[in-house]
Write a structure and sequence with these properties.
Keywords: Glycoprotein, Membrane, Signal, Transmembrane, Transmembrane helix. This protein is an alpha+beta fold. The chain is built from two helices and eleven strands; from the N terminus they run αβββββββββββα.
Length: 198
Protein backbone atom coordinates (compact mmCIF):
# COMPACT_ATOMS: atom_id res chain seq x y z
CA UNK A 1 0.00 0.00 0.00
CA UNK A 2 2.75 2.40 0.85
CA UNK A 3 4.49 1.94 -2.49
CA UNK A 4 1.20 2.63 -4.43
CA UNK A 5 0.63 5.89 -2.54
CA UNK A 6 4.19 6.96 -3.25
CA UNK A 7 3.72 6.32 -6.99
CA UNK A 8 0.55 8.37 -7.00
CA UNK A 9 2.28 11.28 -5.28
CA UNK A 10 5.20 11.13 -7.70
CA UNK A 11 2.77 10.96 -10.65
CA UNK A 12 0.87 13.99 -9.36
CA UNK A 13 4.10 15.93 -8.87
CA UNK A 14 5.37 15.00 -12.33
CA UNK A 15 1.99 15.91 -13.86
CA UNK A 16 1.95 19.27 -12.09
CA UNK A 17 5.51 20.07 -13.14
CA UNK A 18 4.72 19.07 -16.75
CA UNK A 19 1.62 21.26 -16.75
CA UNK A 20 3.58 24.22 -15.36
CA UNK A 21 6.30 23.77 -17.98
CA UNK A 22 3.73 23.58 -20.78
CA UNK A 23 2.01 26.74 -19.54
CA UNK A 24 5.34 28.55 -19.28
CA UNK A 25 6.29 27.47 -22.82
CA UNK A 26 2.93 28.68 -24.17
CA UNK A 27 3.40 32.06 -22.52
CA UNK A 28 6.93 32.45 -23.89
CA UNK A 29 6.01 31.52 -27.46
CA UNK A 30 4.77 34.61 -29.25
CA UNK A 31 1.44 33.95 -30.87
CA UNK A 32 -2.24 34.52 -30.79
CA UNK A 33 -4.21 36.85 -33.00
CA UNK A 34 -7.35 38.69 -31.98
CA UNK A 35 -9.74 40.39 -34.39
CA UNK A 36 -12.68 42.69 -33.69
CA UNK A 37 -15.33 43.48 -36.33
CA UNK A 38 -17.40 46.37 -34.88
CA UNK A 39 -19.92 46.55 -37.75
CA UNK A 40 -20.53 43.12 -39.34
CA UNK A 41 -23.42 44.36 -41.52
CA UNK A 42 -23.17 47.51 -43.70
CA UNK A 43 -25.83 49.12 -45.89
CA UNK A 44 -24.64 51.43 -48.67
CA UNK A 45 -25.97 53.12 -51.79
CA UNK A 46 -24.45 53.09 -55.25
CA UNK A 47 -21.42 55.42 -55.69
CA UNK A 48 -20.89 55.72 -51.92
CA UNK A 49 -17.48 55.25 -50.24
CA UNK A 50 -17.59 52.68 -47.42
CA UNK A 51 -15.22 51.62 -44.66
CA UNK A 52 -14.89 47.92 -43.82
CA UNK A 53 -13.71 48.51 -40.29
CA UNK A 54 -11.79 45.94 -38.22
CA UNK A 55 -9.18 46.00 -35.47
CA UNK A 56 -6.61 43.25 -35.04
CA UNK A 57 -3.79 42.68 -32.60
CA UNK A 58 -0.99 40.13 -32.44
CA UNK A 59 2.48 39.75 -30.98
CA UNK A 60 4.38 39.23 -34.22
CA UNK A 61 4.13 40.56 -37.76
CA UNK A 62 0.76 39.79 -39.34
CA UNK A 63 -0.38 39.26 -42.91
CA UNK A 64 -3.83 40.67 -43.67
CA UNK A 65 -5.91 39.37 -46.57
CA UNK A 66 -9.35 40.52 -47.77
CA UNK A 67 -11.60 38.53 -50.14
CA UNK A 68 -14.99 39.32 -51.65
CA UNK A 69 -17.51 36.51 -52.16
CA UNK A 70 -20.73 37.14 -54.09
CA UNK A 71 -22.95 35.49 -56.69
CA UNK A 72 -20.36 36.54 -59.31
CA UNK A 73 -17.62 34.52 -57.60
CA UNK A 74 -14.72 34.97 -55.19
CA UNK A 75 -12.22 37.79 -55.69
CA UNK A 76 -9.07 38.50 -53.72
CA UNK A 77 -9.07 42.23 -53.00
CA UNK A 78 -5.84 42.94 -51.18
CA UNK A 79 -3.11 41.30 -49.12
CA UNK A 80 -0.43 43.01 -47.10
CA UNK A 81 2.12 42.39 -44.41
CA UNK A 82 2.28 45.15 -41.83
CA UNK A 83 5.14 47.46 -42.64
CA UNK A 84 6.31 45.52 -45.72
CA UNK A 85 4.21 45.27 -48.88
CA UNK A 86 0.70 45.82 -50.21
CA UNK A 87 -0.64 43.66 -53.03
CA UNK A 88 -3.92 45.03 -54.43
CA UNK A 89 -5.67 43.05 -57.18
CA UNK A 90 -6.08 44.82 -60.54
CA UNK A 91 -9.89 44.90 -60.22
CA UNK A 92 -9.57 47.07 -57.09
CA UNK A 93 -6.38 49.01 -57.94
CA UNK A 94 -7.85 52.54 -57.79
CA UNK A 95 -10.70 51.75 -55.40
CA UNK A 96 -9.08 50.42 -52.21
CA UNK A 97 -7.30 52.16 -49.36
CA UNK A 98 -5.69 50.05 -46.62
CA UNK A 99 -5.19 50.97 -42.97
CA UNK A 100 -2.73 49.71 -40.35
CA UNK A 101 -5.48 48.27 -38.14
CA UNK A 102 -6.57 45.93 -40.96
CA UNK A 103 -9.50 48.01 -42.23
CA UNK A 104 -10.02 48.85 -45.89
CA UNK A 105 -12.02 51.55 -47.62
CA UNK A 106 -13.86 50.85 -50.88
CA UNK A 107 -14.48 53.85 -53.12
CA UNK A 108 -17.47 54.29 -55.41
CA UNK A 109 -19.27 51.02 -54.64
CA UNK A 110 -21.61 49.46 -57.19
CA UNK A 111 -24.20 46.70 -57.17
CA UNK A 112 -21.48 44.09 -57.89
CA UNK A 113 -19.73 45.05 -54.65
CA UNK A 114 -22.57 43.63 -52.55
CA UNK A 115 -21.78 40.36 -50.78
CA UNK A 116 -19.51 38.90 -48.12
CA UNK A 117 -16.10 40.34 -47.26
CA UNK A 118 -13.75 37.92 -45.49
CA UNK A 119 -10.66 39.07 -43.65
CA UNK A 120 -7.92 36.65 -42.62
CA UNK A 121 -5.18 37.80 -40.26
CA UNK A 122 -2.25 35.36 -40.11
CA UNK A 123 0.58 35.82 -37.66
CA UNK A 124 4.14 34.93 -38.68
CA UNK A 125 4.07 31.93 -36.33
CA UNK A 126 1.11 30.40 -38.14
CA UNK A 127 -1.84 31.30 -35.96
CA UNK A 128 -4.69 33.05 -37.70
CA UNK A 129 -8.19 34.41 -37.22
CA UNK A 130 -11.08 35.27 -39.52
CA UNK A 131 -13.81 37.88 -39.73
CA UNK A 132 -16.78 38.55 -42.01
CA UNK A 133 -18.61 41.71 -43.05
CA UNK A 134 -21.80 41.65 -45.12
CA UNK A 135 -22.25 44.57 -47.50
CA UNK A 136 -25.67 45.40 -48.94
CA UNK A 137 -25.68 47.91 -51.82
CA UNK A 138 -28.89 49.62 -52.91
CA UNK A 139 -29.66 51.65 -56.02
CA UNK A 140 -30.73 55.24 -55.52
CA UNK A 141 -34.32 55.17 -56.74
CA UNK A 142 -34.97 58.86 -56.13
CA UNK A 143 -32.50 59.77 -58.91
CA UNK A 144 -35.15 58.85 -61.49
CA UNK A 145 -37.74 60.82 -59.53
CA UNK A 146 -35.29 63.71 -59.33
CA UNK A 147 -34.93 63.67 -63.12
CA UNK A 148 -38.74 63.71 -63.56
CA UNK A 149 -39.10 66.63 -61.13
CA UNK A 150 -36.37 68.63 -62.89
CA UNK A 151 -37.97 67.94 -66.29
CA UNK A 152 -41.40 68.97 -64.95
CA UNK A 153 -40.01 72.23 -63.51
CA UNK A 154 -38.21 72.97 -66.79
CA UNK A 155 -41.38 72.39 -68.83
CA UNK A 156 -43.42 74.53 -66.42
CA UNK A 157 -40.90 77.38 -66.75
CA UNK A 158 -40.95 77.15 -70.57
CA UNK A 159 -44.77 77.12 -70.51
CA UNK A 160 -44.85 80.22 -68.26
CA UNK A 161 -42.45 82.06 -70.59
CA UNK A 162 -44.56 81.13 -73.63
CA UNK A 163 -47.77 82.25 -71.91
CA UNK A 164 -46.17 85.61 -71.01
CA UNK A 165 -44.90 86.00 -74.59
CA UNK A 166 -48.36 85.24 -76.01
CA UNK A 167 -49.96 87.75 -73.62
CA UNK A 168 -47.46 90.43 -74.70
CA UNK A 169 -48.14 89.65 -78.37
CA UNK A 170 -51.90 89.84 -77.80
CA UNK A 171 -51.57 93.14 -75.92
CA UNK A 172 -49.35 94.59 -78.66
CA UNK A 173 -51.80 93.47 -81.36
CA UNK A 174 -54.70 95.02 -79.46
CA UNK A 175 -52.84 98.34 -79.09
CA UNK A 176 -51.84 98.23 -82.77
CA UNK A 177 -55.47 97.60 -83.84
CA UNK A 178 -56.70 100.42 -81.60
CA UNK A 179 -54.15 102.82 -83.12
CA UNK A 180 -55.04 101.69 -86.65
CA UNK A 181 -58.74 102.19 -85.92
CA UNK A 182 -58.05 105.75 -84.69
CA UNK A 183 -56.01 106.46 -87.84
CA UNK A 184 -58.79 105.09 -90.02
CA UNK A 185 -61.37 107.18 -88.17
CA UNK A 186 -59.27 110.35 -88.47
CA UNK A 187 -58.65 109.71 -92.22
CA UNK A 188 -62.37 109.17 -92.74
CA UNK A 189 -63.10 112.49 -91.00
CA UNK A 190 -60.56 114.26 -93.21
CA UNK A 191 -62.12 112.77 -96.33
CA UNK A 192 -65.59 113.84 -95.17
CA UNK A 193 -64.31 117.33 -94.43
CA UNK A 194 -62.73 117.57 -97.88
CA UNK A 195 -65.94 116.46 -99.51
CA UNK A 196 -67.95 119.03 -97.56
CA UNK A 197 -65.55 121.80 -98.52
CA UNK A 198 -65.80 120.88 -102.15
Amino acid sequence: MRSLRGCRRRGAIVGTVTLCLAAGWALQTPGGVSLIVPQPNINATVAQNILLSVEYSCRGIATVEWKHVSSWGTTKIVEWKSGNYINISSAYKDRVTTFENGSIQLLNVGMRDAGYYFITVTEEYGTNTYGTIILNVYEIIYEDLHFVVVLFVFLAAVSAILICFMWLCNKSLYLFQKKTHKLTASTTEEIELETIEC
